[in-house]
Amino acid sequence: MASLQASPLPLTHKDTYPGISAQHQPELSQTGKTVLITGGGAGVGYFIASQFAKAGTSTIVLVGRRQHVLESATKTLKAETPALKVHIHTVDVTDTDSTASLWKWINASGLMVDILVLGHGRPSPLKTLLDLGTETVWDFYKINVRAHMDFAERFYKHVEARPSASGPPVHYSNPVSTTSKLG
Predict the structure, then answer these.
(1) What is the 3-state secondary structure (H, E, C) of the chain?
(2) What is the model's pTM?
């Protein structure tokens, strides 16, 4: 069996390159946009947040499980982009009451989310479903499928409810990768 760690791609980028950089491609500017990023306090989610900040995003909502990680990410983002507004929310994405509370705050605050990035997820060990067992498989399903669907549904209802949308909503889902490593 081939290793899942080896990349099938001949070239791997570890930083933003000119073809996808708002600094080099003005049409990619995100000026004035509001972005919500789940799993945005660390790893790939944080890198995505930093790239949106560089692209001119005015507001980022970082969502994650660990308050101290979100606070640290906010401090770094604000140091790099002082005008950026960053809101953080500790949310268990598998808990619908927790996500409902987040979206209730977003709607009550008048914040209009333009872009949703689903950066959360958990890779599964390479075992059969029977070896993993029902509870483990269900936990992976809740975080990797159900939570993504919950956020996507709430996002589209949020966009439909706004008085005048500034363009179509954008939704990115980050498939769980066991080979992602930045730097």
Answers:
(1) CCCCCCCCCCCCCCCCCHHHCCCCCHHHCCCCCEEEEECCCCHHHHHHHHHHHHCCCCEEEEEECCHHHHHHHHHHHHHHCCCCEEEEEECCCCCHHHHHHHHHHHHHHCCCCCEEEECCCCCCCCCCHHHHCHHHHHHHHHHHHHHHHHHHHHHHHHHHHCCCCCCCCEEEECCCCCCCCCC
(2) 0.78
